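re: that complex we talked abt at group meeting.

here r the seqs, copy pasted straight from the sheet so there may be weird spacing, ignore it
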Amino acid sequence: MNKFFRFAAVAAAAMTVSTASLAADWSPPGPIKMVIAFAAGGGADTQARLIAEELEARHGWKIIPEQVTGKGGLNAVNTLKDGATDGTVIGMIVTETLGYNMAAAKAGQPTDVTPITTTAGTQMAIVALASKGWKTFGDVIEAARAGEDIRFGVMTGMLGDLAYVTGKENGVDFNIISVRGGKAVMNGLNAGDMDIGFGAGIQAKAVAAGDMVELASARSEPLKASPDAPLLSDFGVSFVNETAFLFAGPPNMDPAARDAIAAAIAEVVTTEGGKANAFITKGFGGPVVISGAELEMAVQKDFDASGALIAAAAE
Amino acid sequence: MTDLGAIDYVWLGVQAVFLGPEAFVLFGIPVSITLLMVAFGLVLGIVVGATPGLGGVIAMAISLPILISVFGFNSDALLPVMGFLIGVMKGSTVGGAVPAILFNTPGTPDAFMTTLDGYPMARSGKARKALKIAHFSSVSGDTFSDIVLIVCAPFLAIMVEAYLDLPEKTALLILSLSFIAAVVGGSAAKGLLSCGLGLLAVYIGSGEDFYPRLSLGTDALSDGIPVTAAVIGILVLGAIFTELEDLWHQARESGRIEVARDEGDQRLHWADIRRILPFVGRSAFIGTAIGALPGIGSTLAATIGYATGKRFYARRKAPDAPEFGEGAPEGIAATEAANSSVSGANLIPVLSLGIPGNTAAVFLILAAESIGGFNPGPSVFKFSTDLNPELVIAFGLFTTMILANLLNWTVGGVFMRSLGVLVRIPKQYLLPVVLLLTLASLYVEETSMSAIWFAFGFGVLGYFMRRFEISPLPFVIAFVLGGRLEDTARQAFSATGGDPFFLLKSPVAAAFVLGAVAIVFLSLRKPKAAQS
Amino acid sequence: MRKLSATVALGLGCIAFGLLIALIWVPFDTDTGLVERSRGRYIVGDSLAPTLAAVFILLSGLMLLVERRDGDARPSRNNLIFIGVMIACGVLSILVMRYSGPLVALLSGADEYRLLRDTAPWKYIGFVLGGVTMICGMIAFVEGRFSLRAFWIALAAVAGIILLYDVPFDDVLLPPNGDV
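got the structure back, here u go
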């Protein structure tokens, strides 16, 4: 279900170039409201604000960030849904909001918003403190089978289901703990409140310092920082998590505005030496830019496929 | 990367304050922004403390959004912003004594006891001396309290982190909330009511489900109530309404304020200091001990400090010296040292447990949450070998406290003695202006009209709570902690594999829960007159 | 029969409110119960925490009935008059603040206000009118008369707030410009 990037990546590079001049021809009729679906100060919020800052500097647009958090991004979607369609209302969410979360909440369709462009993927991994002594996820399963209670920290509903299905495939019953945000998982691991947890990239520094290990990749491909870590498919799991950060606007958004904003954001996140680019490269494994019809199809496909995981976890 | 030890972190924290981004260069020495902000905060704090009707809370509520706009949402902003708030906190404690001594009007509620001896001293021509004694005692108490904080908080935090698992953390939150509900104000029932209302408010629109609970199907409620709107509404707007009404009832007392002329020696001699030092010491100890418990305010500390001082004084005073209440410098010392030493110790629960014990701590948490990158609580004190930026911030905060005290020792006294004029500002003009300023600040941070509506609504609720003599503090603390209480309980329940008795399985958690129940029931029985 | 004391009335009110929340509001306005089954386990549902809040309120009501008390605090008729006027004044000012700018834009046939909200002088209309209404109204009520002095103070205060927030900071928006 989640060949999200490979599905669309080919056309993306070419498109960035061809639309780069669009941003110059369009200018917003007024200040742009940027809805941010993430808590202030976290990695996702910082990314959004850095992008806003650079858009203002490059194009002279006026951007007003507004935090609308909660409900896995659905609150932000609700705000976007009724916004003006002239390009003065955009928002940053994750693809999971339009996929799993909408499907699980039975609240709306991906077409409730107009996807503009993705900015970055995630390096979703199962992480533990190095002091636990586990080298790969296989060691965790061994420990669990030997009778140890394993607490598994997750920060979204989809990851909770993924953790549950992973356990079930391997005959293990994890104690799954849901928390708010990746930072809370890291704190839980550090405090010993959890044994393992998901990290979307926030673990990068601790992994580099040797304080934490990435036990498995939750993506369809190996992790950049730990290429030797096994994939979940090695443990019989047929689902992955390839959440990407995504800008979206209200439904029926003016195409000129949409293309211009997509091009401008793509330029900001891919230009090396820029603050946003540096941040994305450090924390989220580099920019991933998909936009236009490709993005729309990918989002819709993600939504349609979410039912399988929900069903698997409900069994 | 070299391994970092505890000393390295302390040093990094000090450096973060002094060598952070610089504001300007003075005589070739760069002055860091944090340093400047602490000084600004202290000055503002002394001013609002010395202005009857204003106080540290209002100053913090107004300045927080603007500070965040200035410094932005990154971890560089934490020290300047929180340093400023700490400056305000310390300044307002000192400033409150000015109108209390000069005009018999306490600038802050906890300065009431200061009027008892301060005003008689001023009337007998010793105003400047009384102010000096108040300043000396206040800053001594504060400094003592800060030292206790700096020494205790890290150890407490490490212990908590090492020994408390999720169920115990849940139980500790329950214990703290019930403790606050039971001890604040005159009635445990009303404290519990305040706490329950705060929890109810924070649970609206939040939760794990995709449906926003308790939202009554409305858009306004489904995003939840912004924490700043609730806190500012209950604390600041509620207080402004109450004050305004008092003015309305008084129909403006027109009496001119009499100021006695200073006579004789106004200097603070070593002999004076020796005389008041035992009182300062006792009160500082009392205030610190009280401050370390969440929820018990500086007013109680001042009351107990004064009463203890009075008993001690009666045994040893010279026959011709004035009694407590007739202008005894020792009375000022006992009060001011007690109420000022609350402020530092009050940060022990917030820094080591993440549990705010008073309004200043609530604003520090709001600042940290709005800016991001620093989560006050036990996880801060992780002495990891690679850099733990939160720990650097924590030691940076300690440094700003010491800095604020040094500034307070040196220039604070001079400055506060020049502020007698502030009492003449007509409150009926000042308060509506402050109200609008507060709402504008709130908007700057939340950029949503619904936040203004919420704040106004909670202001009205805060007003009614005050008229029913229900303390607003448990409401605010419950609102700030409610989300964490629910999250921790959820996590503890899941972590134990869905054990319904998770709160009673471990002896520590069970003790905390039993303690919580016991506190509420005991407080029903004991007479409350002494605490109001 | 003795009149009901305010504390007893408050206590009874709390009991009723607590029951209302626990038995009606929470069950009908929340998706999941106290606990629910998910992923093969019991987890805490969304109703548990609000029900706890309701229990606190209920318990406080019971305690109010039995607690020893020193006074019987209650809002007097004067209190109600005062806060009623404050509410009226506040609601009116906030409405003026929110809608006067869009109204002026509409009547003058200029652009939509949403697009003008960061352009002087449009962006000040709501805040100036609403702010002056609020300050003037409250001062006039407390003083029992309307004075020109109050008006000038209000205007000066509003100008001061604009100078403090709007002029130095490019990113800061005064009400209601952030979310129109």
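couple things i noticed - Chain C has six helices and two strands. The interface with chain A takes residues 39-41, 111, 114-118, 171, 173, 178-179 of chain C (CB under 8 Å).
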